[in-house]
Each structure stands twice: as structure tokens, then as C-alpha cells.
Amino acid sequence: MSSFIVQALLGRDLTIFGDGEQTRSFCYVDDLVEGFHRFMSTSSDVTGPINIGNPQEFTVRHLAEKVITLTGSRSKVIHRPLPPDDPRQRRPDISKASELMDWIPKVQLEEGLRRTIPYFESLLAKGNVANAVSV
Q1: Among 31, 52, 67, 98, which residue has the fewest nearby CB atoms (within 10 Å)?
Q2: Average pLDDT over residues 69-77
């Protein structure tokens, strides 16, 4: 996600590997921290693994297009060959987290992007391109 945001803010083309139809799930950091906190606060009889993430799936293409829209970029999407080990789907099963810790993510993709884009804008505005690109 950070690569797409930085590429869009710099007016560069966004690189998608494969056709972009592979799905990913994105969980905003505040939700992850809340999930970790709740897990650490459970009784000792609650053991892992417990998946923490956002089960809502989006195609990589959808993410790229959403980033372009929200940044107001004129970037285009370009395709590169899909690495052979790239999974077609990534979607966590958070049923244990929901059941044992009463936890579900609250921040949805668009809201998370709206909160994240200004962070990268500020890095780039400070001339901190190296840090923005390395995230």
C-alpha cells in the first residue's frame, strides 16, 4: 500500500504484478494495535495463534485505483509479471479474535487510506523521499 501511495504522490505509474485480480486484506494500524492489546489482556488460558487483520478483501487493482483517486494523481497502472509464489488470495480468519477477545477491525480501507496518505505527503513535503519510499 505504501508503495502505491508514494508512487501516486510522485506522479509515477503504479506497478501491479500480474493482472491485479489477486486479493489482499488491509488492516489499519490502530486496529492491529487494539487487537494486540486485547490479546495481551486475555487470561492465560487463551492461547494462539489468533489471527488479527481485516477479512474484507480487495483486488490489488481496486487498491491502486482507490489510491489514484484519493491522491488526485494522474498516475497510470502498469503491469509486471506475477512472481510464481505470489498468492491469489490473502484473507485472515478472525473468528477466534472476534469470539475470544470481542475484537473486529473498525477502520475500513478508504478511511485508512484517507488517514495514511497525509503521512506520506508530509514525508515527501519535507524532502524525505528516501524514508517515504523505504516504508
Answers
A1: 98
A2: 97
- The 10 Å Cβ neighbour count of residue 90 is 13
Q: What tens digit of pLDDT does each residue of 84-119 get?
A: 888 887 889 999 999 999 999 999 999 999 999 999
Domain span at residue 92? Answer: 2-134
Q: What is the pTM of this model?
A: 0.84
Q: Is 10:133 a contact under the CB 8 Å cutoff?
A: no
Alpha-carbon distance of 71 to 74, in angstroms, equals 9
Residue 25, class by beta-carbon neighbours within 10 Å (0-12 exposed, 13-18 middle, 19+ buried)?
A: middle
CA angle 72–75–76, rounded 5-degree value: 130
Report yes or no: 56 and 111 within 8 Å, Cβ to Cβ: no
Q: What is the pLDDT of residues 37-70, one digit of tens each?
A: 999 999 999 887 899 999 999 999 999 999 999 9
For position 32, which CATH number holds? 3.40.50.720
Scored b (16 or more CB within 10 A) or e, 54-77 reads: beeeeebbebbbbbbeebebebeb
Helix (H) or strand (E) holding 128: none
